[in-house]
Inverse folding.
């Protein structure tokens, strides 16, 4: 009897799981991050794969022309295809993270304006509308919230849409707090003021941390841009006398004019990527 019951349960489980589509690792990552919906994800995967294959073929042909090695050129082309495919899939996530940081940058000042508007007796919609008069990324997002409400969405639905567009814990906190204010009609602005103060405190902490790191970045840039080229020139001049080391004029020109400036640009790009967004403005 027990065996029959177990067999029936197993049959039910297999029937229920037949229609379930297996989700790839890429889909899990992108859907977990909230980057896009399933249809958008499928479209992105197809376009990314096409571009990756096209670039892989071009790189493989170029590598084959240079190296005259079929296996090596095929490997380089396959690696290029995979790299382009992965980069194009990660692009929406990177774009979303950067835009969310820009909204967070303006969010404390927007919340301060909103708290002032609410304290003088305006309702939540009117307060948000008047707070959006100042330009900024946060104002643009809340203008979208107001447009969604004008199209028939409720306040909570409009805020949920903002949460889907952005990937930020602070913005979810703000949306939750504003949703409670809209639902209960209270004028208590202590919650949004506390979030604004927390965001400003975090920006001050990030600014101090970056100031300490900037000393190291400056030393690295000075070494790469001044010390290393000087040592290279000295090494090539002195080493040519007692070592089998020589550079012709063309190689020395390429290293001095192209290689070292490229390294300098790479270091500057690294410093820029490590700089907090609110300090770049």
């Amino acid at each position: 009897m027990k065996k029959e019951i177990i067999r029936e349960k197993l049959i039910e489980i297999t029937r229920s799981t037949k229609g379930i589509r297996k989700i790839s690792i890429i889909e899990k990552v992108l859907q977990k991050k909230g980057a896009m919906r399933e249809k958008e994800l499928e479209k992105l995967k197809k376009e990314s794969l096409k571009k990756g294959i096209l670039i892989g073929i071009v790189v493989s042909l170029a590598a084959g022309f240079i190296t005259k090695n079929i296996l090596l050129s095929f490997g380089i082309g396959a690696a290029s295809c995979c790299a382009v495919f992965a980069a194009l899939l990660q692009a929406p996530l990177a774009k979303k993270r950067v835009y969310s940081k820009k909204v967070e940058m303006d969010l404390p000042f927007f919340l301060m304006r909103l708290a002032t508007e609410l304290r003088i007796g305006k309702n939540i919609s009117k307060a948000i509308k008047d707070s959006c008069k100042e330009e900024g990324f946060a104002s643009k997002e809340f203008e979208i919230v107001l447009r969604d409400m004008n199209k028939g969405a409720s306040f909570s639905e409009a805020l949920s849409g903002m949460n889907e567009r952005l990937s930020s814990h602070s913005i979810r906190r703000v949306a939750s707090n504003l949703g409670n204010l809209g639902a209960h009609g209270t004028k208590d602005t202590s919650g949004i003021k506390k979030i604004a103060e927390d965001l400003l405190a975090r920006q001050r902490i990030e600014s101090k941390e970056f100031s300490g790191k900037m000393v190291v970045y400056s030393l690295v840039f000075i070494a790469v841009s001044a010390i290393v080229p000087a040592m290279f020139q000295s090494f090539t001049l002195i080493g040519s006398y007692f070592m089998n080391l020589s550079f012709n004029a063309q190689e020395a020109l390429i290293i001095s004019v192209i290689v070292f400036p490229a390294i300098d640009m790479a270091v500057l790009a690294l410093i820029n990527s490590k700089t907090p967004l609110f300090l770049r403005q």
Remarks:
- Residues 57 and 77 are 6 Å apart (CA to CA).
